[in-house]
Design brief:
By secondary structure, the chain is mainly beta. Helix content is 3%, strand content 67%. The strands form six sheets. The chain has a 21-stranded antiparallel sheet that branches. Strands 21, 22, 25, 26 and 27 form a five-stranded mixed sheet that branches. The chain has a four-stranded antiparallel sheet with strand order 3-4-7-8.
Length: 634
């Protein structure tokens, strides 16, 4: 049975401003210095509304499910009726004032020492912050009855009560006014030296070292307990009608919906929600740290490498090893537990700091053999490592009281590690063409996938609206101990990924040409589970035209279905996707280019499901996107 069935309307206005300063300095033939300093600010205010049928809550609180139809163990159709004091409908409206800002400074130096030595030094700093200055969150809900059917191309829902086109009967269950600050900063420095030698097959030696220091943090603050109720409109408590605007747009979900899909419901007026929230008393708008969502992660790496380059008659190659020492410190908060040491309106908690270090030794080797003047054979082997996202390393949990689900981090998470081997044969029939085929084999030692557990955490609810599975916390009105299904990243048991790649680049006639890439990838874990993100088939096909002043490309992209991850103890999958994109540029003058880009010309959708297509999870209609620009060089 579905957890929720909703029709979401998302609106966002984006505006990006930025610039880049670059200075190039070459005082001698041997020394070159480059300094760059880019800056960008991206304003991304958005408004999300989602009107949802809530079968899991209605049935979980003792409601009824009748007129059912079952396929593949899933109740794909039925009629749900809640108890009078329960909930069958929930409507979320979230208005965000948000932006992202990035800045960086890089220093790059190259110095040639005589005829044989080359020194390269680079240092830099980058900083980014992505803030939600204000998030105006209003949740209304109501008991009721509805029928649903998941068997079509899009879910259909028919409401007996309440009427989706009217706020009548909708109760304000939840409201909050949080602010979120996310910061990231990295400092790095590295240097390497290459020295040409003449010692038989040994052609050159190269050595280097690198240091990075990265900080990532998040600070969540929200109104007391997150409940922020009762909202006051004038001298009386607010009602859902006080926030009502018009109806959804006439073309809402036109390219997704089928007969019975919910496409018409009352909307929340963004100006009203902001105005009413800002008018609440200062004591109600006071914000407190949300401990489960607040964290910091520091990661320092110390690396060094050595490499030898070889060359002979018709062949070349290199071999080397890189050693990286990683030190991580993750700081967060653990909610609840038997003996919490700190108090909070969001539930008592205990601060946690986890420190760990590990070392990776990464050997690699590459070989090139010129079979003939037009055919090249290549072979490569090496060990690779890719660290988890910093958010995945943070202690703590982000709770969703509507669905009683949560996402958490794992400070003990290991990186993705694999031993990989590649063979390729390349044919160059002329200077502008290539036909190549390659084989690859990856022995995956560890990867990252979600694991799910059920854990009890304090949740915030207006008394009387809490789910039946929650119990009051003594002495803390509005707080309830609730069982949450928690997603946390864990390390998979390893696996194998093997396959082949085909590449074609071929000019055809008078500026026209074709580029084609195909990949077959067969990946499976040691326990027989799929590897997250792996599509068995991927295809990129591009046709192009180029001359001295004009260029144009039309690109078709396809990837077969794939497993995304586990979500709430159930698999999350995505259907095969395809898109048609185009780009063009025109050289107006030697220093001015006009550009145009079109994304998703055929208006393809992204469709996700849970294990079987009879359990749909989401349909995303991102629409067509068009970009126009100019490049000026002086």
């Amino acid at each position: 049975m579905p957890l929720l069935i909703g029709s979401a309307l998302f609106r966002q206005q984006r505006e990006r401003k930025g610039g880049n300063i670059g200075i190039q300095f070459r005082p001698t033939d041997e020394l070159e210095i480059n300094v760059t300093a880019p800056y960008s600010k991206f304003d991304a205010d958005n408004f999300n509304m989602n009107y949802l049928a809530w079968p899991s809550r209605a049935i979980g609180d003792g409601g009824t499910l009748t007129d059912t139809r079952v396929e593949d163990g899933t109740v794909v159709a039925g009629t749900v009726t809640s108890l009078p004091g329960s909930r069958a409908v929930v409507y979320d409206a979230i208005a965000r004032e948000a932006f992202a800002e990035t800045m960086a400074a890089d220093f790059d130096l190259e110095y040639r020492l005589g005829a044989s030595g080359q020194l390269h030094f680079k240092a830099g700093w980058t900083k980014a912050n992505g803030d939600t200055v204000n998030e105006f969150f209003l949740e209304t809900a109501a008991p009721g009855s509805f029928s649903y059917d998941l068997s079509g191309s899009a879910p259909s829902v028919s409401f007996t009560s309440p009427d989706p086109t009217s706020p009548a009967g909708m109760l304000i269950d939840f409201a909050r006014l949080p602010t979120v600050r996310r910061d990231g900063e990295e400092k790095y420095v590295y240097a390497d030296y290459r020295h040409e030698v003449d010692m038989g097959p040994l052609a050159a030696l190269k050595f280097g070292a690198k240091y990075t220091d990265h900080d990532r943090s998040a600070l969540w603050m929200s109104t007391n307990g997150g409940v922020f109720l009762p909202l006051v409109c004038g001298a009386a408590p607010c009602t859902a009608a006080d926030f009502a605007g018009g109806q959804t747009p006439g073309d809402f979900l036109d390219s997704v919906a089928e007969s019975g899909t919910l496409t018409d419901y009352w909307t929340v007026d963004r100006d009203l929600i902001e105005e009413i929230f800002r008018a609440q008393p200062a004591s109600a708008r006071e914000r407190f740290v949300v401990p489960g969502n607040t964290f910091s992660v520091n990661e320092k790496t110390y690396g060094g490498y050595g490499m030898a380059f070889f060359r002979g008659n018709g062949w070349s190659g290199n071999a080397g090893v890189r050693v990286i020492r990683t030190k991580q410190t993750a700081v967060g908060n653990i909610l609840g537990g038997p003996d919490p040491t700190e108090t909070s309106p969001f539930g008592d908690f205990t601060p946690q700091t986890v420190e760990r270090s590990y070392t990776d030794i990464l050997p690699s080797a590459n070989l090139r053999v010129d079979v003939s003047d037009t055919i090249v054979f290549r072979a490569a082997a090496g060990r690779t490592v890719a660290r988890a996202d910093y958010v995945q390393l943070a202690p703590g949990v982000n709770l969703n009281g509507t669905t009683l689900t949560a996402t958490g981090g794992n400070p003990e998470l290991d990186p993705f590690r694999a031993n990989q081997y590649d063979l390729s044969l390349e044919w160059y029939p002329d200077r502008e063409s290539i036909i190549a085929v390659s084989l690859f084999y990856k022995d995956i030692l560890s990867y990252v996938v979600n694991g799910s557990t059920t854990e009890v955490f304090p949740g915030e609810f207006l008394p009387g609206t809490e789910p039946a599975s929650c119990t009051p916390i003594a002495g803390s009105p509005g707080l309830f101990n609730c069982p949450y299904v928690v997603n946390r990243p864990v390390n998979g048991p390893g696996g194998i990924n093997k396959g082949l790649e085909f590449q074609l680049v071929k000019p055809l006639w008078n500026g026209f040409g074709i580029i084609a890439n195909y990949t077959y990838s067969d990946a499976e874990s040691n326990e027989g589970d799929p590897i997250p993100g792996n599509s068995k088939h991927s295809l990129n096909l591009t046709g192009y035209y180029e001359n001295e002043r004009f260029s144009a490309r039309l690109a078709y992209n396809y990837r077969s279905k794939f497993f995304i991850d586990f979500d709430r103890a159930a698999p999350l999958n995505q259907k095969a996707t395809q898109s048609l994109d185009a780009s063009a540029s025109f050289k107006l003058t030697p220093n001015v280019w006009l550009t145009a880009d079109a994304v998703n010309l055929t208006n393809e959708k992204i469709e996700q499901y849970s294990g079987t297509t009879s359990r749909p999870r989401a349909i995303y209609d991102n629409g067509r996107q068009f970009y126009f620009g100019a490049r000026i060089r002086y």
